[in-house]
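My current task is to audit a protein record that another person submitted. What it holds is a sequence and that sequence's fold in token form. Thanks in advance; the entry in question is below.
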Amino acid sequence: MKQKISDKLLKLYCTFLYLGLLPFAPGTFGTLGAVIPYYFISEFKTIPYLITIIIFALTSIYITNQSMRFYKSDDPGEIVIDEACGYLFTMFMVPFNWGNVLIGFLLFRFFDILKPYPIRKIERLRDGYGIILDDVLAGIYSNIVLLLIIRL
């Protein structure tokens, strides 16, 4: 059966430009892919950056909800837009340099995998809400630690 263009666009978005279709470590590659949009929005002032990532997260929830019909899992590995959202929250108010990019990446992957309270609980929300919001919270945790590291 031929896919509609709208279905292809949904998959393009939720797999973050098809990074989620890579055969190994799609979440890691989804996070790495987020370095590119971070580079472009890192110069935004605080409020525009925050508005941008909130709109991105809300759009990602909506599109992930629409995309769930393609997948046979509650949290499909192919959907990596959540990692991109989480990483952009990690880098909020963090100046762009490669050291910060690397530390932010490692912190986000740490919190995303470990899922300390209440991240695991939020992950249980249905559909796109749980998929996106647990990574947003992992990004917020990572951001707090990263900002502390930078200030020390």
